[in-house]
Design a protein that fits this description.
Distance between the termini: 14 Å
Helix content: 25-40%
Structural class: alpha/beta
Order of helices and strands: EHEHEEHEHEHEH
């Protein structure tokens, strides 16, 4: 898989508006807690700075859609969960947006569920993985910020992530937006799923 071009397409403030837009091409969706590195991950795999990054969590508050290879597939970036500094009603709105998209879209080929490799998955990470399992949504765990740990620490933490989330070790891809580690593995996964 080679990403030849990528561009920001549009944003949606709710899942209903997104679903009524009528997209009919494969989608790869990105979920994860606030500040886990979703935008950096998207920029890394596309090779273009198309997703806005911020050191402040809670930057993504909309469903953002990115068109890849002139419409070969879309990457859909969902709002981060677990951001503390917003009202409960705002959190509920984001939760409804995420669930509405995941339940409603018929184009999802894979969900990339991002977790921070430096820490044990949070309770919300576990809730998300459980939701994906129960909804029969195919997903791959992306362990971000791999450059922050030694090789031995990374190996230990990947085993911990595998155990806590109940996923196989081969379904966890460690990545780093700094070193570009994992980029080819992610693109290979996308390529395999587009062929199906």
């Amino acid at each position: 898989m080679k990403i030849k071009n990528a561009k920001f397409l549009t944003s949606f403030a709710d899942s209903g508006t997104y679903l009524s837009a009528g997209y009919a091409i494969p989608e790869f969706c990105v979920v994860g807690r606030s500040n886990v590195g979703k935008s950096s991950f998207i920029n890394m795999i596309t090779g273009v700075k198309i997703a806005l990054t911020s050191s402040q969590p809670g930057r993504t508050r909309l469903i953002n859609v990115f068109a890849i290879n002139d419409g070969e597939f879309n990457i859909v970036d969902l709002p981060g969960y677990g951001f503390a500094r917003v009202t409960k009603s705002e959190k509920d709105k984001w939760g409804a947006m995420i669930e509405g998209y995941l339940q409603g879209s018929t184009n999802i080929r894979q969900v990339f569920a991002l977790v921070d490799i430096r820490h044990e998955p949070t309770k919300l990470d576990l809730v998300m993985a459980d939701y994906l399992y129960k909804s029969n949504l195919p997903f791959t765990v992306i362990a971000t910020k791999g450059d922050k740990l030694s090789k031995a620490e990374r190996s230990r933490n990947i085993m911990k992530i595998s155990s806590v989330l109940g996923v196989g070790r081969d379904n966890i891809i460690p990545v780093s937006s700094v070193t570009r580690e994992g980029k080819e593995d992610v693109l290979k996964r996308i390529d395999e799923l587009l062929v199906k």
